[in-house]
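Example: DUF2147 domain-containing protein.
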Amino acid sequence: MKSGIFYILLFFGCQMSFSQTILGKWKTIDDETGVEKSIVEIFEKQGKFYGKIIEIFEAEHRHRKCEKCEGEDKNKPILGLTILKGMKKSGNSYEGGKITDPKNGSSYNCKITMEGKDKIVVRGFIGISLFGRSQNWIRHK
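Written out as structure tokens, the predicted fold is:
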């Protein structure tokens, strides 16, 4: 009987840990205005996590290009732009990658922390995490 309960708890514990992933579609919320901006789809490729803008809510920004971006992203359309690059799972968070702000073209170190299965905190920073800003992203259903 005790082993049966153990296996049931183990099963549900595994289910809960698998359901809390950053994979999927996320609604981005501007940290300064609180306005919903876009949908970013986070996907895994060769053990690292990436995020691409798949929808922009403000019609006047849908056809803009990332003019201030550098390197391979320069002058690419923002819609379809991969803004999260090279994130790695580290315990309960994801880090070690970069995030690009298409508004100013700058890239920052990035850390993503899960806050439940439907909310993540995305922090972009320079140097150490103390010097940066965070956005809450809500899972898009």
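The chain has one helix and eight strands.
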